[in-house]
From TrEMBL:
Keywords: Ligase. It comes from Phenylobacterium soli. The keyword Ligase applies. InterPro entries: AMP-bd_C, AMP-bd_C_sf, AMP-binding_CS, AMP-dep_synth/lig_dom, ANL_N_sf. The keyword Ribonucleoprotein does not apply. Residues 420-495 form the AMP-binding enzyme C-terminal domain. This is 3-methylmercaptopropionyl-CoA ligase. It catalyses: 3-(methylsulfanyl)propanoate + ATP + CoA = 3-(methylsulfanyl)propanoyl-CoA + AMP + diphosphate. Its EC number is 6.2.1.44. Residues 7-364 form the AMP-dependent synthetase/ligase domain. Belongs to the ATP-dependent AMP-binding enzyme family. GO terms for molecular function: CoA-ligase activity.
Length: 513
């Protein structure tokens, strides 16, 4: 029997199902039904799993929210999604209370001790303020929903784009055939097949579940009946301790975690028994070749990789053996996937010719962008979805990524879109113009860099720019490097020539992504 573990707390799969059914009745009493959205402003906690499952029982969409958001960013998502209810951790409520649309019901989850300790939360903020329903008490007021009211449609994930605001990826409820096919692909990508029975699988949630991949991985693991340990905040040595203590078999990670693990002292790296590991998969960001090779040498040939996007799902897969034979590849396409590299006219390119990567899982339930069907139409090329990457295939069918088709920055597995930061910089007094782009970062893969052109006669400093942005965007979007320039290079059209600014930072490196 599967279970969730967080700190000293444990929740078995039967108790999880019962609490989810109560939550479904509670959400139904608030007017939620098929096709509606419930926003989850939560860290990785039992309530995240309970509320997600509850929404599915109603045919509604759980919609995770990045809890790093500023009130302005959170308000956009709450309003754009049209969320009919919000479930939120107590310590996060104060920061976004003003952003919650009037009339939207809010249920508050007390912040558990292990999360409060990991994030340095003031103990006074861990309990819900007066006037708000408290999750556990609220659940007790409802009988469990007797049976599902509609097919579970999946999760709406707000994914970062290259311009403007995040886009909510919303899939139609799958047919039984589509659900079975998608489930089979996910099971292979996450290593759930060929490794014994579900109750033999033990995993640690290392990444926040507001991201697409950790969300899918965590919820799928729980549905499967695995043991899922929730690490409040990623810590490299703590992960090694958990692997040894719980005999962890499976992990889903991003390359920045590999970086931090490899930086541990040698005596720490050899201190723990990691022999239980059977399947580790990484995604979401490029992994430098030296880092991947070092992880395979340390942990053995258990390191796997998949490539895809929220829109396409996992379409390409790579084992350790594949990668060692084809260094730098992200893998080969699944049998169910149609993956091509095309030119500007949509023609499929031969091996080793670089073009845009387009892909689709054949027969997968279609998606749209919540509230913006035109963006969905714009994302399609030759009947496939363009995730925004350029790359090439080799003669053996292995895919290699070369660059981003757009300017989106991937920093530590998190998508950051420069247009948002540029928009906020443009509002700063004394700023005439600016350009934001990604530069190499040893730890995060890419870091945010901003070039700022002051208005004539105005003196600006790097610190002033960073201070301004900290009040406008989430902390991870604030540039690590700010350059003040008297003039920015421009194309004939007047558009800033970002490539000229960016190229010196990438000179001599074997990657541009």
């Amino acid at each position: 029997m599967g279970q969730l573990i967080s700190g000293d707390r444990t929740l078995g799969s039967e108790a999880l199902a019962e609490r989810a059914a109560r939550a479904a009745s509670g959400l139904k009493s608030l007017g939620l039904g098929a096709g509606d959205l419930v926003a989850l402003y939560l860290r990785n906690d039992f309530a995240f799993f309970e509320a997600s499952a509850a929404a599915g029982l109603l045919g509604a969409y759980p919609t995770p929210v990045n809890w790093h958001y500023t009130p302005v960013e959170a308000r956009y998502l709450f309003e754009n999604s049209g969320a009919k209810a919000i479930v939120i951790h107590a310590d996060l409520l104060a920061g976004v209370r003003e952003a919650i649309p009037e009339g939207v019901p809010v249920i508050v989850v007390p912040t558990p001790p292990e999360i409060a300790q990991a994030y340095g939360v003031d103990p006074k903020l861990t309990q819900p303020p007066p006037g708000f329903p408290i999750w556990d008490e609220w659940l007790k007021g409802f009988a469990p929903l007797a049976e599902p009211l509609a097919e579970a449609p999946g999760t709406v994930i707000y994914t970062s784009g290259t311009t403007g605001h995040p886009k909510g990826v919303r899939r139609a409820p799958p047919t039984p055939e589509q659900a079975a096919m998608t489930g089979a692909v996910i099971a292979r990508a996450f290593g759930f097949v060929g490794f014994g029975t579900p109750d033999e699988i033990v995993t640690v949630m290392t990444g926040p579940m507001y991201h697409s991949a950790p969300n899918a991985y965590g919820l799928a693991s729980a549905r499967l009946g695995a043991t899922v340990i929730l690490e409040p905040r990623f810590d490299p040595e703590e992960l090694l301790q958990m692997i040894e203590r719980y005999r962890v078999t499976h992990l889903h990670m991003v390359p920045i975690m590999f970086n931090r693990l490899l930086k541990l002292p040698d005596d720490v790296k050899t201190k723990y028994d990691l022999s239980s590991l059977r399947f580790v998969v990484h995604a979401a960001a490029p992994c430098p070749a030296p880092v991947k090779r070092a992880m395979i040498e340390w942990w053995g040939p258990v390191i796997n990789e998949y490539y895809g996007s929220t829109e396409t799902s996992a379409v390409v897969f790579c084992t350790s053996e594949d990668w060692l034979r084809h260094p730098g590849t992200v893998g080969k396409a699944w049998p169910e996937a149609d993956v091509r590299v095309i030119d500007a006219e949509g023609r499929t390119l031969p091996p080793h010719e670089v073009g845009e990567v387009v892909a689709r899982i054949k027969g997968m339930a279609d998606f749209t962008y919540h509230g913006d069907d035109q963006k969905r139409r714009d994302s399609e090329k030759v009947g496939l979805i363009a995730p925004g990457d350029v790359g090439y295939f080799d003669e053996d069918g292995f895919l290699y990524l070369c660059d981003r088709a757009k300017d989106m920055i991937i920093s530590g597995g998190v998508n950051i879109y420069p247009a948002e930061i540029e928009g906020e910089l443009a509002k700063m007094p004394g700023v005439a113009d600016c350009a934001v782009f990604g530069i190499p970062d040893e730890e995060f893969g890419e870091g945010v860099c901003a070039f700022v052109q002051p208005m004539p006669g105005i003196d600006l400093t790097e610190q002033e720019v960073k201070t301004w942005l900290r009040g406008q965007v989430a902390g991870y979007k604030v540039p690590k490097r700010v350059e003040i320039a008297a003039e920015l290079p421009r194309e004939d059209s007047g558009k800033i020539f970002k490539r000229k600014l960016r190229e010196p930072f990438w000179e001599g490196l074997d990657r541009r992504i």
